[in-house]
Write a structure and sequence with these properties.
By secondary structure, the protein is an alpha+beta fold. Helix content is 33%, strand content 28%. The protein has a four-stranded antiparallel sheet.
């Protein structure tokens, strides 16, 4: 299991529109092979930055989604609100406590 962390820098004044657009395309993400949940977080220090954390079965599953038509539509739905290209990296959890679930609200 891996986690994708994507930083979405959103244009000034477009935060609400970005969140609406994200909600409209999340079904595309949710039906991807290897998808195990996601959480969208807004940075406290910089509210125009949003972090999307997605749990994938494998890096290959995420790469398969990125190569898909669904990913193209997913990104197109949010593109108008982005100030720059999102940055993406992948992590594995090495240690955690039992009382934290990164995908819980």
């Amino acid at each position: 299991m891996i986690h994708e962390i994507a930083l979405f820098p959103v244009k000034a004044g477009q935060r609400d529109a970005f969140q609406r657009a994200f909600r409209e395309v999340t079904h595309l993400l949710a039906r991807a092979t290897g998808y195990h949940g996601h959480v969208l977080m807004q940075e406290v220090e910089n509210p125009s930055h949003f972090n999307l954390i997605v749990r994938w079965q494998s890096l290959e599953d995420h790469q398969g989604f990125e190569a898909s038509d669904d990913h193209d539509v997913f990104m197109t739905g949010m593109q108008a609100y982005l100030a720059a290209e999102p940055s993406v990296h992948h992590v594995r959890i090495l240690a955690s406590t039992n009382d934290i679930d990164i995908l819980s609200a």
